[in-house]
């Protein structure tokens, strides 16, 4: 190395070279020491070694970037798997009869949802909702993967609502679609009153019961004439509950006098033909105080009422035997309209003679038990001229004749069921009226107190199963006769 010349490190810029004393440049020794101390001496690096080092550094850099990318892709893929696995939908469907409703709600995001909606027969609804939300996120940095999970669970409160509704149809008003080949057991079961035929005034006894009504819950309502009250018997009960009247004869709002007709309207209110008071009373569901809907002189006039029925529009049809007519009262009106009879008693097709029971079918067709004409009359809506559909106007006990027909109901096949009072039997007519009727209950040929006998059947109704309830008036009891259908069934019409 020559004096005044410093070797330059290959590959480094000129300004990185150490400064030493030179004879050529006038630099003080102190300055040289300061500069060399601040930058240090860089040893000489051979050219080939530096090139190799640069190549290795580049390869390492690429490898690190590739590793980071791979980790990022793996992290994202793992996050997707977590999100998919955290989505669960469970549907629970529970239904408890009779009137049921099931609601099922599912979610399809990253949410676990279970909804159970249960409706019981009393329309009591319990709803329980549980939701679990799971959120998963994946964050990737240079060479670090982190996973965080947040879980939230909320449970709603449980509420229960109970509502009881009395349904207006078709039980007690419109007969069921009875199978055409159905028969009834010839032995009756006593549902109210004393099975031995004795009368009484306690809540387990009756005295000359007249009209009956059976609702959709099989509750039995009885117009207990001589006890001046209406009793309600719940299923399987032998003791009744007074729901109208107070057991003493009178004309007060809480009294009745010879009640002879009873029905339940669509609101659950009790409608009573308060015969000897010449008025129609309504007892709002749960109340023993009556409201007068109609009374004497409001229809031509209103005489002794023998029966009443209510149609789907809540119109009341009342049989007025004193005036040989059937009157119709629309809701909220005390003025009636004559829809059958209305003149002097007679055998004409536009006449009646001491009519008793009546029945309205879903089409508005009116049927009347024309007692002293020994026949059943049918009136199309709006017509005052009837058609004879049972009996022929002559009293008797053959299949073609009736002796004091006193109550009538019709099933959805058009078959007619008649309480033949003096013959102590129940007769059935098909739509082929000319062929005569057939006896279905009380067919022993004699009246009496035995379980197979009737004595003065005064009214009859179907329950929701097709069983027949009969007011066995002179035996002071209500009898039930079970329906019988062949094991293989039969046509319903």
Structural notes for this entry:
The protein is mainly beta. The protein folds into two domains: 49-161, no CATH class; 183-484, 6 Propeller (Neuraminidase). It has helices at residues 29-39, 47-85; strands spanning 111-119, 125-140, 145-155, 160-161, 183-184, 189-193, 209-214, 220-224, 229-233, 241-244, 259-264, 270-274, 279-283, 291-295, 305-310, 316-320, 325-329, 337-341, 358-360, 366-370, 375-379, 387-391, 405-410, 416-420, 425-429, 438-441, 457-462, 468-472, 477-481, 483-484. Strands 1, 2, 3 and 4 form a four-stranded antiparallel sheet that branches. A four-stranded antiparallel sheet has the order 6-29-28-27, with no helix packed on it. Strands 7-8-9-10 form a four-stranded antiparallel sheet, with no helix packed on it. The longest helix has 39 residues, at 47-85. It is elongated, with a radius of gyration of 48 Å. It starts with 28 loop residues before the first helix and ends in a 9-residue tail after the last strand. Residues 1-25, 35-45 and 82-173 have low confidence and may be disordered.
The rough form would be described as: elongated
Distance between the termini: 132 Å
- The protein's oligomeric status is single chain
Fold-level CATH name of the largest domain = Neuraminidase
The CATH H-level superfamily of the largest domain is TolB, C-terminal domain
How many strand elements?
30
CATH architect. name of the largest domain? 6 Propeller
Radius of gyration: 48 Å
Q: What share of the residues lie within helices?
A: 10-25%
Provide the residue-averaged pLDDT: 76
Number of separate structural domains: 2
How is the biggest beta sheet arranged? 4 strands, antiparallel
The CATH class designation of the largest domain is: Mainly Beta
Given the structure, what is the number of helices?
A: 2
Keywords: Glycoprotein, Membrane, Repeat, Signal, Transmembrane, Transmembrane helix
InterPro entries: 6-blade_b-propeller_TolB-like, NHL_repeat
Protein name: NHL repeat containing protein
Organism: Rotaria socialis
């Amino acid at each position: 190395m020559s004096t005044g010349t410093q070797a330059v490190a290959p590959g480094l810029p000129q300004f990185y070279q150490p400064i030493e004393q030179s004879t050529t440049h006038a630099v003080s020794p102190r300055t040289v020491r300061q500069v060399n101390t601040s930058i240090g001496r860089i040893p000489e690096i051979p050219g080939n070694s530096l090139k190799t080092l640069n190549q290795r550094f580049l390869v390492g850099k690429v490898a690190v970037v590739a590793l980071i990318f791979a980790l990022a892709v793996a992290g994202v893929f793992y996050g997707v798997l977590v999100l998919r696995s955290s989505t669960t939908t469970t549907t629970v469907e529970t239904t408890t009869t009779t009137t049921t409703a099931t609601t099922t709600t599912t979610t399809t995001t990253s949410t676990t949802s279970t909804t159970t909606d249960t409706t019981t027969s009393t329309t009591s609804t319990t709803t329980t909702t549980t939701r679990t939300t799971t959120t998963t996120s994946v964050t990737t940095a240079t060479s670090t993967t982190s996973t965080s999970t947040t879980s939230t669970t909320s449970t709603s409160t449980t509420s229960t609502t109970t509502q009881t509704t009395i349904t207006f149809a078709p039980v007690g008003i419109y007969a069921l679609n009875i199978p055409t080949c159905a028969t009834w057991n010839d032995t009756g079961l006593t549902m109210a009153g004393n099975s031995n035929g004795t009368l009484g005034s306690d809540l387990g006894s009756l005295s000359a019961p007249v009209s009956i009504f059976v609702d959709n819950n099989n509750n039995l309502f009885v117009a207990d004439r001589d006890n001046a009250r209406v009793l309600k018997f719940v299923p399987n009960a032998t003791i009744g509950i007074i729901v109208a009247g107070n057991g003493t004869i009178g004309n007060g709002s809480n009294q009745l006098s010879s009640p002879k007709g009873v029905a339940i309207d669509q609101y659950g209110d009790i409608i009573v033909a308060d015969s000897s008071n010449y008025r129609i009373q309504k007892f709002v569901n749960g109340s023993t105080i009556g409201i007068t809907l109609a009374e004497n002189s409001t229809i031509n006039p209103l005489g002794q009422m023998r029966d009443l029925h209510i149609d789907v529009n809540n119109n009341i049809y009342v049989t007025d035997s004193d005036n040989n007519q059937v009157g119709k009262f629309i809701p909220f009106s005390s003025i009636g309209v004559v829809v059958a009879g209305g003149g002097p008693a007679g055998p004409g097709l536009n006449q009646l003679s001491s009519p008793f029971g009546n029945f309205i079918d879903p089409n508005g067709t009116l049927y009347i038990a024309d007692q002293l004409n020994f026949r059943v009359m049918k009136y199309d809506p709006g017509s005052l001229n009837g058609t004879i559909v049972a009996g022929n106007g002559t009293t008797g006990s053959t299949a073609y004749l009736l002796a004091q027909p006193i109550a009538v109901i019709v099933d959805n096949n058009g078959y007619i069921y008649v309480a033949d009072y003096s013959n102590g039997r129940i007769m059935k007519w098909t739509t082929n009226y000319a062929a005569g009727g057939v006896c279905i209950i009380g067919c022993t040929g004699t009246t009496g107190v035995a379980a197979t006998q009737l004595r003065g059947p005064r009214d009859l109704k179907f329950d929701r199963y097709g069983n027949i309830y009969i007011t066995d008036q002179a035996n002071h009891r209500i009898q039930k006769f079970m329906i019988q259908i062949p094991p293989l069934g039969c046509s319903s019409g």
